[in-house]
Fold this protein.
Amino acid sequence: MNIGRVGIWSPELRLHPDPVEIHEAAAELDQHGWGALWIPGLGGGDILGDAERLLRATENATVVTGVLSIWRHTAEDMAAGHARLSRDYGHRLLLGLGVSDSAAAHQAGGVYRPLGALNAYLDQLDQAPEPVPADERLVAAMGPKLTELAGRRSAGTHPFLVTPKFTATARETLGAGPLLAPYQAVVVESDPARARDTARGFLAPFIGMGHYANSLKRQGFTEEDLAHGGSDHLIDAVVAWGDLDAIDKRVRAHLDAGATHVALHAISADSGLPLAEWRALAPLAR
């Protein structure tokens, strides 16, 4: 499945209250030429219904769940929904799967053993009446074991809040073939103080979550970097901010490090669909 080299990652394409505006925005993004439109799993909900809305609005872009929690969606339902949407819209749906955290597992009545749980879920997708092909699913992975599993049993991996250095390490683990599609937050703002304030407001809740904090520490960031919403060093490393050239430089850094695709999340200080930011980023679509 070819998702191009750059895509748009957007919670607004799920959460915006006006479905007509979502449809129009998705159609415009498709016209810009983005290879994929990514929607997050959030707390569950009808993620396949939200994916179908984007498939209906577009003609070329792949729609990717980035990522749905295996604790909140059964493999049976996801396989059946994937098969239906593939029949109706062609092979333009890529199922991104994630193991979330221990709280999600416990809430679902499960035991948090990420590797075993994900393997079992993938087995169920393989054994469904209409299996999900390995090249039409991918895995969110931050550590080497899950990254290896992603390369072996899916199209590849979609890591969250990572640097180009992490991308290079993940590519070494994956080998040459599998998809490596890091998430990249961006702020289209050249003033350092405003850009970092916007980035910090978005990142602070994630930094406070244990599994993301631990991932950032494994990437070399310190407790001081994670304090008070994130140091400037952390913000600058995981968020690309500035003009189009500055953001393009970060995209190219990931691609040079071995990424096959970069999913751009335009963060704005304003609420609603970030149409101005998407239009500013449109020259990067390829």
